[in-house]
Structure formats: structure tokens, C-alpha cells
Amino acid sequence: MQLTDKRFMIFEVATIVYAIGLMLIAKCVWEKTPTIGILTFLIGFSLISGLITWIIANGKHWFVFGLTYEAIFLLLITLCMIFDAIIGGYSVFNDLYLDILILFAFVFTIAVVCFIPSMILAFVGYHLFGKSGKGNNNRSGA
Predict the structure, then answer these.
(1) Cβ atoms within 10 Å of 75's Cβ, excluding its own
(2) Entry pTM
(3) Per-position b or e across 38-66, b if 16+ CB within 10 A of its CB
(4) For 45-79, what is each residue's pLDDT tens digit?
(5) In angstroms, rounded to a whole number, what is the distance separating the alpha carbons of residues 109 and 81?
(6) Which of 74, 84, 98, 136 could be joined to 93 by an S-S link, Cβ 3.0–4.6 Å?
């Protein structure tokens, strides 16, 4: 598998569409219009998650592919938030325990909102951009 593979590039375009779809879902859930900065970060996280997932889970069952994508996506968001808090010196309640709880509550909310779109992305990616280029219907467990 090469990252110059046409299927990989098509999948990365699908992750951009996925990120834009997530922003629309987030707009409905939180009733706020996202900024272009947030959309840029989300597209970046989606592209990086897609790259890592493609390297790790390409060729595995679509559900494993989706779970891998979701886990990497959430890990990137969590690490970014932790890094931002450390560099920026942010502490909501000046209590590490409460900050960690808030972080996990926020990430859990994102995980719940992103789960079904991530599984749709994985299903489409698995069947349309499989190794044969025509789908992976010949594999067992599909």
C-alpha cells in the first residue's frame, strides 16, 4: 500500500466531507455556528486520522477500520486539548481532577456524536476503496 494510491486520496477527500458533515451535526447539537478555525482543525484531525487509520487498519473489517479511525480521531483531539492546556496554562477550576473530568466528558460527548458518522465513513471506505478497487465483497466477514 502506497500513500500515493488513488484509493487513499479518494478516502482522504471522503474524510474532508466527513469533517464538514461533523460540523453540520455539531451545529445542530450545540446550536452554535462553528468558526473557520475550528473547521480547519477538524479537517486536519480528520486527514491525520485517515492517514494513520489507512496505514494501521487498511484491509481489516470495516468495523475495525471505523473503530480505529474513531479512536485515533479522539486521541488527537484529546492530545491537542491537553497540549493547549499545558502550554496555555489553562485550568478551569484550578483542580486537576475536575479538569480531567471535564476533558473526558467533552471527549465522550464528541465520541457519541461522531460514532455513527465514523462507522458510515468506514463502511463506505471499506467497500468502495478496498484493495480490489471494486469493493471487498469476496472477503469473509464483510
Answers:
(1) 14
(2) 0.69
(3) eeebbbebbeebbbbbbeebbebbbebbb
(4) 888 988 888 888 877 787 888 888 888 888 888 88
(5) 14
(6) 98
